[in-house]
Amino acid sequence: MYSFLDRSFAFHQQDDSSHKSIAPQWLESLPLVTEADDLANYQGYFAYQQVAGEDALSFFAQLDKQWVSISVDLVGGQVAYRRQQGGGRKQHIAKACGLKSNRNPTVLDATGGLGRDAAELRNLGCELRVVERSPYVASLLQDAISRAQANPETNQLFSQGFELHHGQAIDLIEQLSAEQQPDIIYLDPMFPPRNKSAAVKKEMRLVKRLVGEDPDADNLLPVALANAAKRVVVKRPSYAPYLNQQKPSMSIESKGNRFDVYLMTRFSNGN
User: Which end of the chain, C or N, has fewer beta carbons within 10 A?
Assistant: First the structure.
């Protein structure tokens, strides 16, 4: 069983009425640290900070001897750009998921991460169930969902048709009833970057510190193939091998990435 118990993180309970001070549900077991000087004893810590005028749950860690932070935003930034200028259903992710003008499939995103692809699919009309097994990443994502629900611009997108579940994706998928079976299961597992030097982006370095390695990603594919109604879509770096070394029905190439599509009309017959 994949475990997160060996992570040395803390929650900074700030003595400041301008910030939230209570740890979210999935971080309640972390040590509570009130003195800022004590935070250096941990690999990283969570705290609320002002982002775009709102309290946003953030993760702080030292990279290259400097404290840096990450939070999730489903309202502005890159997500907003993709929502407003992304090209609609002509995008590669939309083609991979088989989105048609009159079809809004249900999608189970089994590797939720920072939620950007899930947010994009929700914006395109899909109903999303998002699974994230890391309590740390799930907490950041849940905080972003709450802020998106409170924002008039995105309230309708995230108040319905978008659910987050924390847990092991394999276990949750296998527990689905026939009525809960999604049209599409979407996978985007962690993959070692080509360049492991300082050129690796800050954000991905922080995420990897939160989630560690992803040694059992291959095990997701057969479970997904057994439980998706129409297709499984796997997002991979363009240089990465097929997940579980299983050739897809087709692949859709985008800049730096590839969407491997497994159609159930083929794989349900054992081919």
Answer: N
Q: What is the pTM of this model?
A: 0.91
Render the burial of 156-191: b for 16+ CB within 10 Å, e for the rest: ebbeeebebebeebbebbeeeeeeeebbbbbbbbbe
CB 202 within 8 A of CB 63: yes
Closest CA relative to residue 180, chosen from 227, 247, 115: 227
Please give the structure tokens belonging to residue 201.
């982006």
For the chain, helix (H) and strand (E) counts, in that order, are 9, 12
What tokens does 68 get? 């840096």
Q: What is the phi/psi pair of residue 64, to 5°?
A: 50, 40
Q: Find, among 203, 174, 192, the residue nearest to 240 by Cα.
A: 192
Q: What pLDDT sits at residue 175? A: 93
| Overall CATH class of domain 77-267 | alpha beta
User: What is the model's pLDDT at position 26?
Assistant: 95
Position 202 scores a pLDDT of 85
Among left, alpha and beta (phi > 0; psi -120 to 50; other), residue 161 is left
Both tokens of 79, joined, read: 């997500």
Domain ranges for the chain: 9-70, 77-267
Instruction: Count how many Cα atoms sit within 13 Å of the Cα of residue 79 in the half-sphere of its side chain.
Output: 21
**In this predicted model, what pLDDT tens digit does every residue of 215-262 receive, in sequence order?**
788 999 999 999 999 999 999 999 999 999 999 999 999 888 999 999
Integer CA distances (angstroms), 121 to 68, 85, 142, in order: 29, 14, 17
pLDDT tens for each residue of 28-63: 999 999 999 999 999 999 999 998 889 999 999 999
Q: Helix (H, G, I), strand (E, B), or coil: what is residue 196?
A: coil
